[in-house]
Give the backbone structure.
Amino acid sequence: MDEADLKQEITRLKRERDAIILAHNYQLPEVQDVADFIGDSLALSQKAASTDAKVIVFCGVHFMAETASIICPDKRVLIPDLEAGCSLASTITVEQLRAWKREHPDAVTVCYINTSADVKAECDYCCTSSNAVKVVKSIPDDKPILFLPDMFLGAYVAEVTKRRNIYIWPGECHVHAGIRPSLVLEMLKMYKDAEFLIHPECGCTTSMVYYFGNGNGNGNGNWSRNGSGYGCVVSNSSGNGSSSNASLVKFLSTEGMMRYAKQSSAKRLIVATEIGILYRLKKENPEKEFIPISNDAVCKYMKMITLDKVYRSLRDMVYEVKVPEDVATKARRAIERMLAIN
Ligand code: 13P
Ligand code: SF4
């Protein structure tokens, strides 16, 4: 079948199965085209929680489909390829988490949504890149926090909240870890009129937060809530004494980037995250220019979901993701606490 036929068949099967297709912002363009809803981890969980459809075809990675199954135990959640994992989620096992908790018995545990259901079940709160700061701020100041598993997001949250009692698990995503500070500084010199959208999972986050947040690069040193994320106005100086233009560096979830790009007056935006998001950014903002910080920022797991596999998933009702009820009940608490904070 060619692409047009596949898309037609998918639309037909969706109706027949009473299914909804949820797709993450990093999905392939043709997969985004057949989706009923596209978003970041938080928006996708909220959509899963509110849909009336009987079947959810989750075009994303495994932990996202697990989250949907935890939130909607009576729905059938399908993932088109079971191998679509996440390098960040694999950096911590439930055994490692239990051992870490034993070392800090008084701590509150906050897990990023990029974790397995087993790990979520051992945590007090879940969070995503769009609400991690909010979740941490909701926890009493005197309570130590174990934040897992992303060290860059953890360092970002610690800096924005100015909280010093956060212990951070040393995990990272192989795609975002490759986005180093030198890359951002190079682009800052090259594009003086651009705004920078940075995902807090990036390897540059910690340095950039300190660099701009502490008054370097002519940063004002003040982190403030601005639209859908936290930003810091900086002067985009090349550092060689040349004149500089005002520029904004913002740390945003993928959906935060979508929202921000729409309302920004900048004509050119540099995007520091997985390149799949560029399709939607360009489609929804044709008058603006979006430049990926690195063309190598490709998540091979996200790209495992092809149109062919979405079709097969609906046709054969595969592959079901079902979290055992005892694990789901515990994990649901952490997710529901997060959703309540939003
Ligand atoms: P978002 O929730 O910002 O979409 O991030 C999910 C993710 O896996 C980023 O790599
Ligand atoms: Fe996981 Fe990184 Fe892929 Fe996001 S980009 S799904 S964190 S491996």
